[in-house]
What we know:
This protein is an alpha/beta fold. The protein is built from 12 helices and 17 strands. The chain is 25% helix and 15% strand. Helix 6 crosses helix 7 and helix 11 packs antiparallel against helix 12 (364-379). Mean pLDDT is 82; it is low at 438-447.
Amino acid sequence: MLAMPAAKGLFHKAxxxxxxxxxxxxxxxxxxxxxxxxxxxVGCTDAATVVNCLRAAWPGKLVANQANYLGNSKVGGSLLPxxxxxxxxxxxxxxxxxxxxxxxxxxxxTETALVGITAQGYVDTIKREYGDKAExxxxxxxxxxxxxxxxxxxQVHTDAGRGRRALLVDTAINTPETVGVDDLxxxxxxxxxxxDDGTERADPVDFxxxxxxxHGDHTGKVPQMADRxxxxxxxxxxxxxxxxxxxxxxxxxxxxxxxxxxxxSAIDLGGRRIDIVALYGHTPGSTGxxxxxxxxxxxxxxxxxAYVWAHFASATTSTYAATLRNLRRELRPLQGxxxxxxxxxxxxxxxxxxPPINGRPLGLEYLDDMIRAAEGALDGSILADPYHEIGREAxxxxxxxxxxxxxxxxxxxxGPTGGNGDLRQFHGSAFRRAIPPIRSSTTRTRS
Length: 447
């Protein structure tokens, strides 16, 4: 109401409770599309009867599909033409006295992943988040005041009113740079504090970091991020782990990594939720970061990147295929989802005619093609081609617009069959003088 022109003069004071006025809002168009998706997910597909259909729908079905519903206010149209942050910045909000606050210890509800944090983990977290002000925070919130370190850290975060943050996915290879001029942290902060036209933003945000997998071309600049939270795949954890790393895993289960003893299954960026997605195959812990509201999934090298390298000892083809199938089921309601792989311009190769800046981002159709490639490798319905860059045991295969590299010795756990394969299935590769371009279908079967 503070940003609604039609509400002007209808109230003289406002109370904002448990809400961040400056949080990012979705557009009306995005909300309407997600509304259609939600209705379809519960079986209401006829636009003429959708309202009555939703009213009659079984409550259990509505609850089971609530992840497909896009809550909160939507920006666009005459009712809410601009977000409150924009209205506040340009002075067009309905100016009345405002009282804002949160419930005491409110972050106990949103930070369950920190349950089990140790006393030392509490101290490390405060030092990481508050830098040279950490000692003052620790003095104001001593552990002796609380029943547990978790009570302490969630109270600090509640009182601080942790606001919006951005998320940097991966940190590239460790190339030479000048600190304070062109280093990654300086560049990202500049982007987040400026509009597209170069003017300074009225409400700049800071950022945390999320890593998709352990390879050095994705983690090279992690050491310079010691002053912020780095979300790191639990199954890719290594001996170089820093105190500011937080282990992530899609199931949010227990772990021996990190300071809390538990993994994080979702990231709260202050009004925006990022879900952790299992993409095991490229590495044991390859992880995706899903922004369901904005219909974006950052995949690292696990999907896309022109062609997936899944020939490593940890990248068993059968496991990768199962991961892709599970992912496709989870993403089914998110029509229009964009897959954002690493090595951006490499997706120009093969079936991708142009990079997203000129064409369109990868979508669920690409995931379907990747599943087709992996399953074709397993059941022998698609012949692979030699991939000489790796070695004689590596081949690559196409499921249409998607291509993956895999090893003939690592189709199943334990080797070529490992007791898990079907010996009646044929697996092989074709030998040609040249590799033809990908067409709409390159599947060939052999009985």
